[in-house]
Specification:
Length: 504
Amino acid sequence: MTTYKVGKVLHYINGKFVEGVAGKSFENINPFNNEVINEVAEGFAEDIDLAVKAAKKAFDDGPWGTMSVDERMKYILRIAALIEENAEEIAYLESLDTGLPISQTKKQASRAAENFRFYAQMVKSRMVGEAYKVDGDFINYTIYKPIGVAGLITPWNTPFMLETWKVAPALATGNTVVLKPAEWSPLTANKLAEIIHEAGLPEGVFNIVHGFGETAGESLVRHSDVRLISFTGETTTGAEIIKNSADTLKKTSMELGGKSPAIIFADADLEKALDAVVWGVFSLNGERCTANSRLFLEKSIYDSFVERLKERVQNISVGDPLDSSTELGPLIHKKHWETVLNYIEIAKKEGAEVFSGNVPQSLKNGNFVPPTLLLNCHNGMKVAQEEIFGPVMAVIPFETEEEVIKMANDVKYGLAAYVWTNNLKLGHRIVQSIESGMAWVNSQNVRDLRIPFGGTKYSGIGREGGHYSFDFYTEVQVIHVAIGDHHIPQFGKSKKAETISAQQ
Ligand code: NAD
């Protein structure tokens, strides 16, 4: 495999790669061996201020907002083409930085290019207003306008895909952007800046400030010239961001944590269900917001299905994320690794039977957690309620439809749900009863870019994706045009007339 050189990562502000004002930097660690990959410029409020000023100037005075849609979309399509040209390097950097297996990061690189292509098409074909004829008096019509400086804050799981998922609609609709990527995964965000630089976007339209959440992230959220914040990350961080954005009345979109159920009935296609749930929790190293981290099995198939799960878990190929045969790589960071291992200990204390696959001894320097099943759980356990965000699945038996719906909903999250049955009526009934933003029947998580993405309860507020992103990244303005001779109240007119006549 080709390896790529990784140098110091700098901020990208006003069309230039720059050091931070304070001149500080932090180390970026390789999850495979815990060695330093490179240094990253560390941003603070001063750097955020420079980036926001550049983005505001580009929005207020620059050509971005005023150029024709066709011209703007040429830039968006150029970014998509450059992502495709650089897909191999992007996948390599992502796997090196996050520990995600390269076979999976390659798919995400192409998905990222699609995000830009898709929004170029959507803006041209679907960013349309409405018109109302109000009797013979008025025409009312609506237009969508970009809002201004968009603050985008992203997590470390699938960083490149999630960054492009926000950057593409924000730019395509005419906003300017300041992106604060996750501190544990800066490499592909930097590559995106290089690509956007090469695509020749006007200065200040796209900016990145690297750094930590409590400093760089919070300054972006509090900045008075940032009009909206799109955030993906943990629920507690989302709550903090909503509070901190209140004083400056920002629009916020929250894509947060999950603890999604997969429910398998005895009549389902069990082979397919097995493939889907194993993939659903162990792909992306289990660091997937929509992972089916709670598996509900109908009691009559519990034992046989668990046996099949155990076989799969033992065979999952755990290894170097840069090896194309690896299915499960190391977790992003030592701290997160400790958190996930701690949950496995909690599961034991709570009385679950812990069944784990194997991690070769040669991988001992990396943040590896074996694929793990927590068997014979009940829904009240901490490990069945809290987001573990690793390759760990709690397995719970159920007997009736009512019972499983109750358990599936008895959790604070509501992101995704998966139901497996060949009974059409039952399938629809169950998914419609589940409190989740998204649900799949007889399928793993497959998503067309046109549909809304997001969660309910503690999993988020709002939807992005498809034309739903327009609701977030644009402001709708209504224009009322009089076309007839409608009545206008004549305040003051009649009294004046009376006074004049009294004086006469
Ligand atoms: P995190 O909340 O710790 O960090 C996410 C981002 O927020 C980072 O860039 C971080 O620096 C920044 N941040 C932290 N504190 C901040 C603050 N006070 N103000 C502003 N910014 C701040 O999340 P993470 O650990 O990077 O990501 C994992 C989480 O993301 C999981 O809970 C997962 O479920 C969730 N996630 C959700 C979705 C979804 O679409 N619903 C998708 C992917 C990940």
